[in-house]
User: What shape does this take?
Amino acid sequence: MSTSKAKAKVQPLSDQEIQQTYSRLQNELQSLAGKIGELEQEAEEHGLVLSTLNEALQVEPGRKCFRLIGGVLVERTVKDVVPALQTNREGIKKVITNLSEQYTTKERDFETFKRDYNARPISRA
Assistant: This one.
């Protein structure tokens, strides 16, 4: 009885609408995965720079370093740059967490869609 109620909620779509929705959801998942990958790489780069700068911070905190801000190279000291980089890295990690949650939700929606409409990839021989 619960299956008939679940099927009643599904809107009938034409084959073309099902195909378009399937492709759209698949593209959205790929886009989110790509963005997550980019941000993970950026967080990793921030970590590498921070490990190097932390060594310099212990030895010579007044040492000058250069940072690219909005396409402009600016001169700062290590003690000024390290906190900013840590804040940036934490912000990136929060965005990654948020995007991962969105990905999980979108993936669940996609699986529900595939199950409701019995959708699967078209195999081209």
